[in-house]
Amino acid sequence: MADQQVPVLIVGGSLVGLSTAVFLGHHGVPSLVLERHAGTAIHPRAAMVTQRTMENYRAVGLEPEVERIAETEFVQNGAIMAVESLGGKELEWFFRFVNEGVEEISPSKRIFVTQIGLEPPLARTATELGAEVHHGTEARIEAQDDDGVTVVVSSRGDGSERRVRARYVVAADGAHSPVREQLGVRQLGRGSFSDCITIYFRADVSGLIGDRNLSVVYVLSPRLQGFFRFSIDLQSGFLAVFSTVDEQGERSRRVGEDMSPDTCVAYVHDALGDPGIPVEIESVQRWAATADYAERLREGNVFLAGDSAHVMPPTGGFGGNCGIQDGYDLAWKLAYVLDGRAGEALLDTYDAERQPVGALTTEQAYTRYVLRVDQSLGQDDLMPVVHEVPIELGYRYRSSAIVADDDEATWEDTKEPSGRPGFRAPHAWIEIRGQKQSTLDLFGRDFAVVAGPQGEAWRAAAERAAASLGVTVAVHRIGAEIADPSGGLAALYGVGDEGASLVRPDGFVAWRASAAEADPEQALVDALGPALGRATATV
Question: Which of 332, 333, 411, 528 has the smallest CB count inside 10 Å?
Fold first, then answer.
């Protein structure tokens, strides 16, 4: 007998697990979050939060708070560049400003924030939305059947155990995921290629930075390769060291074998380019640079998310964002299946949609690592570089829940969005009842139809189709509920004057008609059925 029953149990209460709990709570689903550590993050691991992740937080009302926290920790919209040393030669500027050129493609902007700053509001919000968050606990799957999963939960403090019965389990338990290992899910990719360290230190670097606004500084010195991030007051930071080179020119990727204070101070001094600056080492973390992704993300009623599904080097800042977007995709699907609005088959689309995205993102992070940090790893089998914008916003979903054409495009340039099924619905500024909003603000909980200016027939059709399938479908007609100041919204969404686009709760286009349909109700039923993991029906 189980001591507790929950709809969703989340193993791992860090960035991805907490975000998933928030997204589930947003859809009215309570969850139990189990985290092995005693609390939220204690190391100020800084991360670039991409526009898509900020759009996810925007949908649940967290964007303003995340932005506020970020502003207290870092000067925002800085550069990403490479140097021989912080005080030495500048080698390359990857971004002069991280939001330069992407301001118009999203209502949200890229930010930098630490996990120390981000995890507490996520935990608070998850709790407010019905989650239980327990720290100092570990989980082991005891059994699963068609109706759910039995999990043994043990306290790391007193060793006590209890059993929890969950309808579904989300394994967000990190790169060395015990749940993934227990399920026997194989990993694909590049494996581990460097034994790295991150050195957290205190030092006054203001004189070396000068008036430069630097968010990420790659260091490619003759002696070491890694990157810096600095606090807002320029009195502390961290240096990640990927590899070193000795006096004979031999490269070593076994940096973690020597984490002594003297060695770490020497690394920081070398990367700063000034051995006279006093440096105090606060802590050192050892980790492996790895590029792997799971071959599948579902095993029965258990789903992999975050680093348990894909682990990648930090080049590009994609890792945590990819995991958060796993949770955003999975949360609405779990919610719809749990309350009967969708069929169980909808959950199969999580693997179909997110596994290829995780694989693509992991390979892109690895390509950047090789090209930016360590070309000696070899370039013969590298995936060609895809620009950051498509990786962040332009990836495509393909699954039975998407009624799409047969072209093979897996991503698109979000600066020129197509509005095609499988892609994120494009952002544009609109007005609703005189208030400026983004088109993305139309999506977040229910399915939505965006209809062309002369597409009034879609309203009644959507109402009848939604009633027949037992779901809510909001209808937004351009020129009616939606004021279109630019005049280009119908073309942006590809619906013309009389067509319509069906957008899922996660903001991805499920189906589109570029013109009027002879039977719009049946057309919507034919699209909604697969989007809900249910067979279509004649109305």
Answer: 411
